[in-house]
Amino acid sequence: MAAESNAVHGGGRRHVLLFPLPYQGHINPMFRLAGLLHARGFAVTVFHTHFNAPDPARHPQYRFVPVPDGTSGPAPVAIEDVVAQILALTGACESEFRDRLAAVLEEYSRDAVACLIADAHLLPIFEVAAKLAVPTLALRTGSAACCACFLAYPMLFEKGYLPVKESRRDMPVSELPPYRVRDLVVLSGDERGGVRELLARAVTAVKLSSGLILNTFDALERRELDGLRRDLAVPVFDIGPLHKFSPAGDSSLLRQDRSCLEWLDARAPASALYVSFGRLACMSPDDLVETAWGIAGSGVPFLWVVRPGMVRGSARQELPEGFEAATRGRGMVVAWAPQEEVLRHRAVGGFWTHNGWNSTTESVCEGVPMLCRPYFGDQMGNARYVEHVWRVGVEVGGELERGAVEAAIRLLMTGEDGAEMRARAGELKKAAEECTGKGGSSCLAIDKLVTHMMSLQH
Ligand code: UDX
């Protein structure tokens, strides 16, 4: 390793300060980044909100600094409420963060602190750091294509793509291929409000920072990365897929049920479908019923994550009566799984996913083809890339209906189309391994990132 690409400098470890957005899909990549930078010699300090706080006992090698965020009551369920919560809690922790950052700077001595890396959704945190002359880097946990969509938001309104009109949902967005209007980051009918504000703040945060870190890699998004490098004045570090450099299991907010790995051990290679819709997506009670009977009718072995709160308006996640008997010996349902290990398991032959960016990259890296059922935010765009660019999956669109679900599962798991997708996914897995291997693009980007961090001036 080159001398300048580790963080032991002038006799002491340099500190890196981190501040994740407190949701699973954002916490995981930040902790993976923490692991990577710690391995490069940085001392890691994690600032975090009280909401969804990490457990310091699981990371004794890091220091944790809680920042009061003014939240109270249960976590929001509807995605509109999540957007409102992000805007509220980032505002609420601003002054609390200022005090704590100032105290940490005094304690460590300014020169020992390389920089602060914060989630790009935390604009007030970037502003506080700028006022205290601490250099910042922005972590965007989505794809490069999604980041380009954020940058293009004003143009999308100017040119009339947004707000979305029902009649134009299938219209291609010629400035952002392969997106169609329906693939853009919008919430149903709400694109003038909180979402627009959230995206504008993320763009400002990136522009305020000294660099952008993306959990993606060259073989997956070369064209999109080139576009960002052209459009942004700050350096862009494509250091993904981060989970290949450092696992995030310890940052799981829910207890992972590891018994499903044993269950998978008893299954034939590539025979089982893994079904999970991530941490935030919610389905209607009717969709749960159609999903269940579609899975049952397919005859395919399955591991299904039915997480607490996954069904809208229902405290209990009840599967339909008779489902267990109909699938006995062929399926397993858990509340939360060790997903990285599940996708790596040889028995898993397909992933029915909501296409959160972490789930998408975790699947791509294990050569697992996907059934795509995106719910909100960047998930539609991710599904578009899976189906039309990388061609390693197929979307389950429209209203969920058990017959269509059954057919989609069979197509992926036992059909010829599915076999072709699996073969392409295998190629993509190899390409990912090249990027993360010695001398690969992501390794070189990590070296550049560390060198950049060591060169930042207060
Ligand atoms: C959210 C948005 O949905 C996503 O589009 C955005 O890119 C990040 O924030 P989330 O819904 O949580 O993320 O999905 P995803 O990005 O896929 O992240 C979920 C994480 O939880 C993954 O790292 C996955 O490995 C983990 N997970 C999921 C588990 O550990 N166990 C499970 O059972 C399911």
Automatic annotation (TrEMBL):
List the keywords (alphabetical): Transferase
Which GO molecular function terms does the record list?
quercetin 3-O-glucosyltransferase activity; quercetin 7-O-glucosyltransferase activity
Under the heading SUPFAM superfamilies, the entry gives: UDP-Glycosyltransferase/glycogen phosphorylase (SSF53756)
What domain of life does the native source organism fall in?
Eukaryota
CDD domains tied to this protein:
GT1_Gtf-like
Please list every transmembrane segment annotated in the UniProt record, as residue ranges.
none
What the record says about family reads: Belongs to the UDP-glycosyltransferase family.
Q: What is this protein called?
A: Uncharacterized protein
Q: What organism is recorded for this protein?
A: Panicum virgatum
